[in-house]
Amino acid sequence: MVGIVVVSHSERAAEGIAEVAAEMAGDTRIEPVGGDGKSGIGTVPDAIEDAIDAAAGEGSDAADADGVVVLVDLGSAVMNADVAVELSEAEAVIADAPVLEGAVNAAVAATDPSATMESVREQAEAARDMEKL
């Protein structure tokens, strides 16, 4: 199973986006992470790494993990997520996608029994071309 991590500068935003995506996710692990660890705005590589490991199932049934797709909001979240991906022992990729729409697309794609990390990433990134009107 492919896991999903939602990274935002706001802890509440990450939780809300993960909540919306979870409506479409079935049993997919979706881990929200955000904030600077001190109730402020920002992102922290160690917290993102922990979320990647949790989404991959590290410490439980990690053998069932098929990788993790990470969605980020902007700026330093990209940089810190990149550091976290490098530090994590789990296989993970960052999707170049709008965070909310990408998370929903990724959640739907991850429910496919044949989903791979790359197929979930592709569906997240397909959200860039979605028209709303």
Summed up:
44% of the residues lie in helices and 14% in strands. With 133 residues, it is an alpha/beta fold. The chain has a 4-stranded parallel beta sheet, with helices on both faces.
Word description of this protein:
Helix 1 runs parallel beside helix 4, helix 2 crosses helix 3 and helix 4 packs antiparallel against helix 5. This protein starts with a strand and ends in a 7-residue tail after the last helix. Helix 3 links the parallel strand 3 and strand 4. The longest helix has 12 residues. The protein is α/β, with parallel strands linked by helices and 133 residues long. Helix content is 44%, strand content 14%. A 4-stranded parallel sheet has the order 2-1-3-4, sandwiched between helices. It is globular. It has 5 helices and 4 strands.
Write down how many β-strands occur, each being a DSSP E stretch of 2 or more residues. Answer: 4
Please state roughly what percent of the residues sit in beta strands, choosing from under 5%, 5-15%, 15-25%, 25-35%, 35-45% or over 45%: 5-15%
Q: How much helicity do the residues have?
A: 40-55%
Shape, principal axes of CA atoms: globular
Rg over C-alpha atoms, rounded to the nearest angstrom: 13 Å
Query: In order across it, which strands form the biggest sheet?
Result: 2-1-3-4
Structural class by secondary-structure content: alpha/beta
The major beta sheet can be summarized as: 4 strands, parallel
Q: Runs with pLDDT <50, length 5+?
A: none
Q: Helix and strand succession?
A: EHEHEHEHH
Taking the alpha carbons of the first and last residues, their distance comes to 33 Å
Q: Mean of residue pLDDT?
A: 93
